[in-house]
Design brief:
Distance between the termini of chain B: 22 Å
CATH topology of the largest domain in chain A: Rossmann fold
CATH superfamily of chain B: Vaccinia Virus protein VP39
CATH architecture of chain B: 3-Layer(aba) Sandwich
Number of domains of chain B: 1
Distance between the termini of chain A: 34 Å
CATH topology of chain B: Rossmann fold
CATH superfamily of the largest domain in chain A: Alpha/Beta hydrolase fold, catalytic domain
Number of domains of chain A: 2
Structural class of chain B: alpha/beta
Oligomer: heterodimer
Largest sheet of chain B: 7 strands, mixed
Radius of gyration of chain B: 16 Å
CATH architecture of the largest domain in chain A: 3-Layer(aba) Sandwich
Helix content of chain A: 25-40%
Number of strands of chain A: 12
Strand content of chain A: 15-25%
Number of strands of chain B: 7
Strand order of the largest sheet of chain A: 1-4-8-5-9-10-11-12
Strand order of the largest sheet of chain B: 3-2-1-4-5-7-6
Number of helices of chain B: 8
Order of helices and strands of chain A: EEEEEEEEHEHEHHHHHHEHEH
Chain lengths: ~375, ~210
């Protein structure tokens, strides 16, 4: 818990939720009759309603991007180093909104929500949603909040892919788009990792076809899924630096199958912790969202055509040691934007931390976002 | 890309005169984006900088100049053929690993290219090497032999002979003396009195990609 709230923190934050009674037609052809979106906001919306920035979260993230929900919180929101007074997404100037995605489990409608048709949790009856559906749902929130145009839509990883989808589907609803550590679509290897994660969950004896609510949940499967994910978030160098072959608490080898190495201990801890805060069904749905993401698909695989309607400006950032979404994938995005003569800046930041670098305070990375957002603010007279 | 070579404002004036308004350009080794910002503000030219230094990239973003990080030594594969009108390479050719390859790449991506470089055939450099017996150090080439980024120094004559060999057509040449002026000596005896050479080039008839 924070002894006291740091000065550059947005402080104690309160979540909010909106209900949308109008059905949402989904990309899959199914429809969601009604839904809730849970979100947090930081900073103040100005009188002209012209200073709003949307932050999109990644796979296991949520709407709690900055500040503390209570004085008991051990850690602040997941992008607290990015959002706050004087930070790159400066809350003294911008009104920052972060929305929990559909299919998640942090207050927005998802598989653990009650299905109005049955009075039971949806489980696997929840329709498959896509990034396009997320954007369509968030447009409703944008209108509800009375924000005609986001100054920027910003995200990392799956959040960066969501930001791109905004520029593709609703270019007139945003100025700038910041895409960090993302990819235009998943590779076979990415999908393979997701499938292993899903199989870990679905083959857990406690899974019960997703109808585990009210019983024991597939803890082992979800923990295993998270462990697999964590391996892909770190680079080999980062793992070596962090753990090497260090033995747990300096103990000798057990010559058994208990935890010997620090890296094992770390992964098990991450797995256990995740189980307490995340729903296994949501993890299935969100990994599918990732797998299905391919905005170029409806344009014969030509990503450049997907951005044909965009008049936005872009900042694309990748990290040198990210092998989950390698820098080359961000270059693909950049090339597609360049082909449309769109304003795009791209940089590959030297960072040893792997994919997780997008969550870290890395000087040149934050300076870049900060400078870009200052420019966005200046041009909007903020 | 090398950012070691210092950019001289003197060649910006010529570049501004050569680049047609309302065109699209690439500025290779764009530094802090000064040239592109100037062309945008004065001539409504849209363009992208290409830079390797993150520090410079941030300076470009601050000016609102789009900039794409790339290493010029590996070519211009992020940029499609014929995707811009002009490709500019100011004071950097001599620091490139494969200058002939980059020139080809520039003419693949752009309709025309503008190249400026320091002339190692300048009398001051020649004097230092011939009489002093040392690698030249001049105001436009201030480095020591061991720490210079300028690994491919060349003269006007060298450049023109490369263009001939690669079937690159020279459209225009401008030679500036040490004071950035296009004086009589620099015009008449360019390889001896020119400190900075500038060329407008395009694909020759036999150039294929």
């Amino acid at each position: 818990m924070p002894e006291r709230i740091p000065e550059d923190s947005v402080g104690i934050v309160e979540g909010a939720s909106e209900h949308f009674a109008e059905p949402l037609e989904l990309e899959s052809g199914e429809r969601l009759e009604a839904f809730d979106l849970a979100y947090e906001t930081y900073g103040a919306l100005n009188a002209e309603r012209s200073n709003a920035v949307l932050v999109c979260h990644a796979l296991s993230g949520d709407q709690h991007a900055a500040g503390y929900q209570s004085m008991e919180d051990r850690k602040p929101g997941w992008w607290d180093n990015m959002i706050g007074p004087g930070k790159p997404l400066d809350t003294e100037r911008f009104f920052v909104v972060c929305v929990n995605v559909l299919g998640s489990c942090k207050g927005s409608t998802g598989p653990s929500s009650t299905n109005p048709a049955t009075g039971e949790p949806y489980g696997l009856d929840f329709p498959i949603v896509t990034v396009k559906d997320w954007v369509a749902s968030q447009v409703r929130l944008q209108d509800r909040l009375g924000i005609p145009r986001w100054r920027a839509v910003v995200g990392g990883s799956l959040g960066g892919m969501t930001a791109m989808q905004w520029a593709i589907d609703f270019p007139e609803r945003l100025d700038a788009c910041v895409v960090v550590a993302a990819a235009p679509k998943l590779s076979a290897q990415n999908i393979a990792f997701n499938e292993v994660a899903r199989q870990a969950i679905m083959t857990d004896p406690e899974f019960h076809g997703g109808r585990y609510y009210g019983h024991d949940k597939p803890r082992r499967g979800l923990a295993l899924a998270r462990m697999i994910g964590h391996i892909t978030y770190l680079s080999e160098d980062a793992m070596r630096d962090k753990f090497g072959r260090d033995l747990r608490k300096g103990q000798p080898l057990s010559y058994g199958f208990d935890v010997d190495f620090e890296v094992e201990s770390y992964l098990r801890y991450q797995g256990r912790r995740f189980v307490d805060r995340f729903d296994a069904n949501s993890y299935l749905y969100l990994t599918k969202v990732l797998d299905y993401y391919d905005p170029a698909a409806e344009f014969d695989g030509d990503l450049a055509r997907a951005f044909a309607g965009s008049d936005n400006r872009f900042l694309v950032i990748a990290f040198s040691s990210d092998w989950r979404f390698a820098a080359e994938r961000s270059r693909e995005i950049t090339r597609a934007l360049y082909a449309n003569n769109l304003e795009v800046s791209f940089a590959e930041i030297e960072a040893p931390q792997g994919h997780d670098a997008f969550l870290l305070k890395i000087g040149p990375y934050h300076d870049m976002v900060s400078t870009f957002m200052n420019r966005v603010a200046r041009e909007a007279d903020l | 890309m090398k950012s070691g070579a210092k950019r001289f404002r003197v060649d910006f004036d010529v570049i501004e005169a050569w680049v047609e308004p309302e065109t699209r350009i690439l500025d290779l080794g764009c530094g802090d984006g000064t040239l592109l910002a100037r062309l945008r503000d004065n001539n409504r030219i849209t363009g992208y900088g290409v830079e390797i230094s993150v520090h410079n990239i941030i300076a470009c973003i601050d000016k609102g100049v789009p900039v794409i990080q790339a290493d010029l030594d590996t070519g211009l594969q992020d940029f499609e053929r014929d995707s811009v009108d002009f490709v500019v390479l100011s004071q950097t050719l001599q620091a490139i690993r494969y200058p002939h390859y980059l020139l080809r790449e520039m003419l693949r991506v752009g309709r025309e290219a503008i190249v400026s470089f320091p002339n190692i055939g300048h009398w001051l450099a020649r004097t230092q090497l011939c009489l002093g017996g040392r690698m030249p150090r001049t105001p436009s080439l201030p480095y020591n032999w061991y720490n210079t980024p300028n690994i491919h120094l060349h003269t006007l004559r060298d450049f023109e002979s490369l263009c001939h060999k690669e079937d690159i057509e020279i459209l225009e040449r401008r030679v500036l003396d040490r004071h950035g002026r296009s004086g009589m000596l620099a015009r008449d005896v360019p390889n001896l009195f020119g400190a900075t050479a500038m060329y407008r080039i395009q694909r020759g008839p036999g150039m294929t990609f």
